[in-house]
Design brief:
This protein is mainly β. Helix content is 15%, strand content 44%. The chain has two helices and ten strands. Strands 1, 2, 3, 4, 5, 6, 7, 8, 9 and 10 form a ten-stranded antiparallel beta sheet that branches. The longest helix is centred in the N-terminal third of the chain and has 9 residues. The radius of gyration is 13 Å and the shape is globular. The model has no long low-confidence stretch (mean pLDDT 86).
Amino acid sequence: MDLDKLINAFKNKELQTLGVISIYGNYFGKPGDTISTIKDIYKRDETLVIELNNKTILMSLPKKVSYNYYSIDLEESDFIKVDDKEYFYKENEKAFHLYNWSAQSKAH
């Protein structure tokens, strides 16, 4: 899936913006307990910027992008930085993963 489609889906309010976020398996807070909100997603040169309610994620443009109503997955990114902390590639972990369990439960 194309990164521009992801950005357009965000701007058109077709994208899940609330959920638990992990970066290469590192969760913000406790998995299933700490909820983040995406405020904006955009490209700046060769960097994808994801602004959260209290953090900014900078990552090299991911090569694989997938999303649906419940989740966002970004893979194959060379670098990820959240504020001043850098995250590095971990085998079998997605570069960026957002999931919203409550969105799924509402759909059933």
